[in-house]
Amino acid sequence: MPALGGRTAIVTGGGHGVGRGIALSLAEAGAQLVICGRTPETLSAVRKEVEARGGVALDIVCDITRVADLERLVAATLERFGGINILVNNAAIVPHGTLLEIDDALVQAAWETGPVATLHLMRLCHPHLKGDGAIVNVSSGIAISGNAHRRGIYAATKAALNAISRAAANEWGPDGIRVNTIMPVARTEAVERFFADEPERAEAMLAAIPLGRVGDTEEDIGRAVAFIVSPDARYITGVTIPVDGGSSYIR
């Protein structure tokens, strides 16, 4: 049986980028998949990708800032698959701007789509993850960067996410729930824009990756997550794992 055979996974922001890569890898490892996001077309496309590979997936349009939507997501997952074993919190906006110029509404949205929404969904899934559940929260290396250029609020939300994840690992360990965080570097639409808009900074970032390339969302990031939530990683919890080609430790 595949490593995740018979297990059910929820992936937020599963319609594109890192979320899509994680979703495809979890399905490849045998998980029954529930992907949520705001855009029906992208969610449907990923569901069809999963099904074309022989997997099983359910796509749900969901605004993660609305608790009622998160409750509906959990209820639909339980109705379709009967349980929840894996939760991947990936969805969040990436706010840009210096601390003096960034709009207050964007700051608020960053917190609501990031650590606040993540905490809400973790709480809702907690009763169903008891026993041998696994949570992976998607953070960013910017949370530990010495210079979060024009992304200070983003860094703050990801640092908060790391702290919440560590707290959950400690508090929920006795319930049999593992909680880990990853800091990926992957070729997403946002990274492509970064290379186009800030080529000098982007080239410096690339030069700081010992493996010399930006990661693939499925083969590099997704497969790492599939391992972290698998029984083979059953003794790993409470850690923030850089999945970034080594760049976090080139300083």
UniProtKB/TrEMBL annotation:
InterPro entries xref list: KR_dom, NAD(P)-bd_dom_sf, SDR_fam
Segments crossing the lipid bilayer: none
Species of origin: Sphingobium baderi
UniProt name for this protein: 3-oxoacyl-ACP reductase
Catalytic activity: 2,5-dichlorocyclohexa-2,5-dien-1,4-diol + NAD(+) = 2,5-dichlorohydroquinone + NADH + H(+)
Similarity field: Belongs to the short-chain dehydrogenases/reductases (SDR) family.
Gene3D superfamilies: NAD(P)-binding Rossmann-like Domain
Domain named Ketoreductase: residues: 7-188
PANTHER family, sorted: DEHYDROGENASE/REDUCTASE (SDR FAMILY) MEMBER 4, DEHYDROGENASE_REDUCTASE 4
